[in-house]
Design a protein that fits this description.
The protein is an alpha/beta fold and about 475 residues long. It is built from 16 helices and 17 strands. It has a domain of about 230 residues: FAD/NAD(P)-binding domain (3-Layer(bba) Sandwich). The strands form 4 sheets. It has a 7-stranded mixed β-sheet with strand order 5-4-13-14-15-12-16, with helices on both faces. It has a 5-stranded parallel β-sheet with strand order 7-2-1-11-17. Helix 2 packs parallel to helix 11. The longest helix is centred in the C-terminal third of the chain and has 25 residues. The N terminus is likely disordered. The chain binds flavin-adenine dinucleotide (FAD). Flavin-adenine dinucleotide (FAD) binds next to helix 2, strand 2, strand 3 and helix 11. The site of flavin-adenine dinucleotide (FAD) has 32 residues, from helix 2, strand 2, strand 3 and helix 11. InterPro entries: FAD-bd, FAD/NAD-bd_sf.
Length: about 475
C-alpha cells in the first residue's frame, strides 16, 4: 500500500482509555500479541470502584471465550472467582412482596449464567498489567497529519498511537469527541446495593436455596437477592457489621425504586450516608405486606459495602465509519440497563472481537483505509442493540408497578414477557445439554459439564492460593 512503511507493519501502538472490564480484557489480549505496543490509561489511582465488591453475571459463552483468549495463568486466577452454580444452572425466581412465589425463570439463557466475583475478575486482569497507567485522566485527542492519534491527559502529558480505543464507560470522553451528538439521560430510577454475609441463617432467608430472586414490592419498588458462593468456602466467616472479606461468600441485596418514591429525599441518592441507605432499605422492607425475611436481611447488611446505581441510559449510536484510528468498546459505545446483566458480557465480547480484528494480518494491510474497523463497529452495535432491547424489556418488567392495576397486568404478562426476552437471545449456550430442563436438582442423561467447567480444577487453584489455610 502506498505510504506504508515496514515499521507500520512491524509495530502497532494501541492506547486503551479506561481499565474497566472491557478495556482490561482488550489490553490483556493485545499485550501478549507480538508486534503490538500497548498502554492503558485509567483515571483512578486504584483500579477500583465500589461496584467491584459485587458479583457480575457472565454467560458460559462469555467465559469460554475469555478462557480461549487470555493467558492461562490469568484465566486460572479469574476462574477462582466463578461462584458455585446451583444444580441445573442459574434460575431467577419471582416473588410477590408478601413472599408468595410467582414463577421460576429457567430458560436456557438464564441457566447458562455464572455468578463471578468482580473482585477476582479485576484482580486477575490487573495481574502482570505493567501496561496500565493509573491516576491519569484522558481529556481529548487530535488526529495528526500522518494519521496517528495524539491523546491529551489531565496531567498535561500526551501520548501518540496508531489506534485509540475508548473503553472509558458510559460517560466516555472519547465518544463525546467522536460522536458528539450522543446523549445520556438519567431515568430517575435508583438501585441501592449492599452485601449480606452468606451464613446458614441468611441463606434460609433467600426464599429459594441459592437462586437469585426478584421480588416486586409496592410503590414500584423491587428487591433483588443474589448469592455469590465461594465454591471452597461456602459460608462467610470474615465479616463485621461494616466490612466483609472480598473472598467471603455473600448475598447481593439490591433495592430498586424510582427516586421519587424514596423515603429519604434530602439529597441525591448517591450523597446519602451508608446508614441512611440502610435506613431507606429498612423502611421499604418494614411496610405492611412485605415478608419479614426482607427486613431481617436488610438488618444484616455490611454498611461499608453500600453502592448506589443511578440508572442512566446513553443513546444508541449509528455505526461510525470515518475514523479508522479511533474506536470504542463496552459501555462507551452505549450502555444498557443492568437488570438483565448483559453489559459486561457485551464489553468482553467487544474486546475479543476488536482484538481479533487488530491482530489479523488483514488489519495490518488495511488499517489506513477508512473502512478498516467497519465490520467490528457494525458487529458491536448489532450485538448491543439486541442486548439493549432485551435489557430494556427486563427493566420495564422491574419498574412497571406504578399502581395496582399496572402491577396486576405486569404479573399476568410475566411469563410471556420473559419468553420474549429469551426469544431475542442470540448466544449459543453450549452447556444447555448438561442442564436439567425439568426442575431443580435434575441433571440430564449425559450428566456432562461443559469442558471449561471440568478444567477449572478448583482444588488445585485453591491450594495454590490458600494451601496453608486448607483443612
Ligand atoms: C450494579 C451493576 C450491576 C451490573 N451487573 C452486571 C452483570 O451482572 N452482568 C453484566 O454483564 N453486566 C453488569 N453490569 C454492567 C457492567 O458492569 C458494565 O456494562 C461494564 O462494566 C462495562 O464495562 P466497560 O469496560 O465498558 O466500562 P466500565 O467498567 O465502566 O469501565 C470504564 C473505565 O474507564 C475509566 N475512565 C472513565 N473515564 C476515563 C477517562 N477520562 N480517562 C481514563 N479513564 C477513564 C473508568 O474509571 C473505568 O475504570 C452491571 C452494572 C452495574 C452498575
Amino acid at each position: 500500500m502506498p505510504g506504508t512503511t515496514s515499521s507500520d507493519i512491524d509495530s502497532l501502538k494501541v492506547i486503551v482509555i479506561g481499565a474497566g472490564i472491557g478495556g482490561l480484557v482488550l489490553a490483556q489480549i493485545l499485550h501478549s500479541t507480538p508486534g503490538i505496543q500497548l498502554s492503558c490509561y485509567e483515571r483512578y489511582k486504584a483500579i477500583d470502584d465500589r461496584v467491584v465488591g459485587f458479583r457480575v453475571m457472565l454467560s458460559g459463552t462469555t467465559l469460554s471465550m475469555l478462557k480461549r483468549k487470555i493467558k492461562s495463568d490469568i484465566w486460572a486466577d479469574l476462574a477462582f472467582g466463578i461462584g458455585e452454580q446451583p444444580e441445573g444452572g442459574e434460575k431467577i425466581e419471582f416473588f410477590k412482596g408478601n413472599g408468595n412465589k410467582m414463577l421460576t425463570w429457567d430458560s436456557d439463557p438464564t441457566k447458562d449464567q455464572y455468578s463471578v466475583s468482580r473482585w477476582h475478575l479485576r484482580e486477575a486482569l490487573v495481574k502482570e498489567a505493567s501496561f496500565v497507567r493509573t491516576g491519569i485522566s484522558f481529556e481529548r485527542y487530535e488526529v495528526l497529519p500522518n494519521g496517528r492519534v495524539r491523546a491529551f491527559f489531565s496531567d498535561g502529558s500526551t501520548d501518540e498511537c496508531d489506534l485509540l480505543v475508548g473503553a472509558d464507560g458510559t460517560n466516555s470522553n472519547v465518544r463525546k469527541q467522536l460522536l458528539n451528538h450522543a446523549t445520556i439521560k438519567d431515568l430517575g430510577m435508583v438501585v441501592i446495593y449492599f452485601k449480606v454475609p452468606l451464613t446458614e441463617r441468611s441463606l434460609k432467608l433467600l426464599g429459594s436455596p441459592a437462586n437469585s430472586t426478584h421480588t416486586f414490592c409496592p410503590n414500584n419498588q423491587y428487591i433483588m437477592l443474589a448469592p455469590w458462593q465461594n465454591p471452597l468456602a461456602p459460608f462467610s466467616t470474615r465479616y463485621t457489621q461494616h466490612t466483609i472479606d472480598p473472598e467471603d461468600s455473600y448475598i447481593m441485596l439490591g433495592a430498586g425504586s424510582p427516586h421519587a418514591n424514596f423515603h429519604n429525599r434530602r439529597c441525591s441518592p448517591n450523597e446519602l450516608t451508608q446508614s441512611e441507605l440502610q435506613a431507606e432499605v429498612l423502611a421499604r422492607t418494614s411496610q405492611p405486606g412485605i415478608h419479614a425475611r426482607f427486613r431481617e436481611l436488610a438488618e444484616m447488611v455490611c454498611l461499608d459495602t453500600a453502592y448506589v446505581n443511578i440508572v442512566r441510559k446513553s443513546e444508541a449510536v449509528h455505526p461510525w465509519t470515518s475514523s479508522p484510528n479511533i474506536t470504542l468498546l463496552g459501555d462507551a459505545v452505549f450502555n444498557m440497563s443492568n437488570t438483565l446483566s448483559r453489559g459486561a458480557n457485551c464489553a468482553i465480547m467487544d474486546a475479543a472481537a476488536l482484538a481479533d480484528r487488530i491482530t489479523s494480518p488483514e488489519y495490518r494491510r488495511e488499517r489506513h483505509q477508512p473502512a478498516a474497523l467497519d465490520d467490528y463497529v457494525r458487529g458491536n452495535i448489532e450485538r448491543r442493540e439486541v442486548e439493549r432491547q432485551r435489557s430494556a424489556m427486563m427493566q420495564k418488567i422491574m419498574f412497571s408497578g406504578q399502581n395496582k392495576l399496572r402491577g396486576f397486568i405486569r404479573n399476568k404478562a410475566l411469563p410471556s414477557s420473559l419468553k420474549k426476552i429469551d426469544s431475542l437471545d442470540r448466544e449459543e449456550h453450549e452447556g444447555v445439554n448438561w442442564i436439567g430442563s425439568d426442575g431443580e436438582g435434575s441433571v440430564d442423561s449425559t450428566g456432562e459439564e461443559p469442558k471449561w467447567v471440568e478444567e477449572l480444577k478448583w482444588d488445585e487453584i485453591f491450594e495454590g492460593r490458600h494451601g496453608h489455610e486448607k483443612g
